Amino acid sequence: MTVLVITGTGTEVGKTVVTAAVAATARAAGRSVAVLKAAQTGVRPDEPGDAAEVARLAGAVTTAELARYPEPLAPATAARRAGRAPVHPHEIADAAAKLAAEHDLVLVEGAGGLLVRFDAAGGTLADAARLLSAPVLVVAPAGLGTLNTTELTARELRSRGLDLAGIVIGSWPAAPDLAARCNLADLPDVAGAPLLGSVPAGSGGLSPAAFRSAAPQWLAPRLDGTWDAEAFRVREAPPAS
Known about the structure:
By secondary structure, the protein is an alpha/beta fold. It is built from nine helices and nine strands. The protein is globular and about 55 Å long.
C-alpha cells in the first residue's frame, strides 16, 4: 500500500501512537514515510500537534498538517467557531497523493472517528479514503464497549465500498480484564477483518529510541512488524469458565 488512512472508533483511543508505531515500523523496514494530519484541533499555533508527536516518536518522517483550529472540537465545528476555512475531503486526498509521489508510505491520520465532519457539507475521512482508493486501518480500545463501535465502523466502511485493512488495539493494558481478553477473539469476528497489532498502554511515554526499537513487535507482518495475533491471543486468553 502507498497510502493508509488511520481512523479510530472514537476519540482518545490511541490513534496518534498507533500512527507513530506504523511509521516507525515502516522506517525500520527501509521505507520512506510521510504523515498527514488532516485537521488538528485543540492545539495552539505554537504547540506541537499530532503530526509532530508522530515524528518525535517515529523519527525521520515527513509531516504535513492541512489546518489547525484552537478548540478541541470536531473539525467542522472548530473551523466554524474560529471563523476559518474548513478542510474538505478532496484537499486531504490531493495532499496525500502529492506526498505519495515522493514517499513509499503515506499515513493519513483523521480526527476522532470515521464520520467526524470536516466541513459544512458533511465531508468525512471516509470520503477522503474513497477519493484515494486507500485502505483504512481502525484503531480500537481494548475493553468493554469496543465491540459495538468497532462493528459500526466496519459496517460503515463496507457500506461505502472501502477496504478495511484491519484493527489495531490502541492501548493494551498491563493487567487486562476479562472483557479485554475476550475481545481478542471477538474483535476480528465483529469487524470481519484481522487484528493487525496491539500497542501496550503507555507506549507514547517511552523514549523515542525505545519506542522505535519496540514498535515492530506491536504490529503484524502486513504492517511490516513481527506481532503474531494468534500467539498473542493464546497468551492473553481468559481462563475457561
